[in-house]
Design brief:
Layout (H helix, E strand, L loop, with lengths): L1 E13 L2 E14 L3 E5 L6 H8 L7 E9 L2 E2 L5 H7 L5 E4 L13 H12 L5 H14 L16 H13 L5 E5 L7 H16 L4 E6 L2 H7 L2 E6 L2 E7 H6 L4 H8 L50 E3 L2 E3 L8
Parallel strand pairs: 3-8, 3-9, 6-7, 7-8
Antiparallel strand pairs: 1-2, 1-4, 4-5, 9-10, 10-12, 11-12
Amino acid sequence: MSLQVKDLNIVYKVGKGSIKAINGVDFELMKGDSLGVIGETGSGKTTIANAIMRSLPENAEFFGNIFFNNKDILRINLETYRREIRWKKISVIPQYSMNAFNPIKRVGEQLVKIMMENDSNIDISKASERIFYLFNQLNLPPEIYKKYPDELSGGQRQRVVIASALLLDPELVIADEPTTALDVINQARVVSLIKREIVDKRKTLIYITHDIAVVAGIAKKVMTLYAGEIMEFGDSRKIFKEPLHPYSKGLLASVPDIRLGKTKKLQYIPGDSPDLSKEIKGCPFAPRCPVAMDKCKVERPRLRYVDGRLVACHLMGGE
């Protein structure tokens, strides 16, 4: 499996204006890779996921390419994408589990429908067998099969959503803030399940989150995204040990460190994200960057290799 995102640009048309949500994003993933995508609200994380899933809203215009197994999935017919790729090869765990289900149909009925609509060779018996297998793997009682969505707890609903994403054994799973609105106990359970059922089984994972601590434990690679642009991309151990981009440093400085009783003064990034409806000159992070130079305000930095990772910063040298 391979996923290549090349010079992806996404613009939302709003009234007479437009919002540039994604600006020139490039990255590549191979089979077994796990990528954590972190950044503030509005940085473009979910927009990238929606582009891969071909679920962008009607007011979105896109440029660039997304190659999945050497096919540009932004260019193929949408019906072909739905029939051959969505759920079968690429699936998603959405942010809000309750919105993923029809409230007036039983859970099992909805999961069976997903399987039978995407694989004509599966009958109800085989579909149910697969569903009960996943329920067992996800520590869900079999009686959930006959329950309605609103009869489940938040943690149970989220695990059922994970089951739905794994039904057809996809090659790539996108988890879009899958622990949103869950308590810390269920958050830990869901993250553990994703690691065991996706990462440890060598599927490819894109994990979108605000929770940097989760990314540290689940992702081999990390992308820090700001104002629709990649600030830093590379090996998670390197980035968490020694972030190079000032934005990455700011994000990590805002996370408490409780290892071996260590304490540190928590920091925050002052200011607000830029208005993406206006043209941005230079580095989009420059107005909030504590080490910005005059050059940063007028010239956009390009991604360059520094210490084995990609960094978009004028302060960095590189290859």
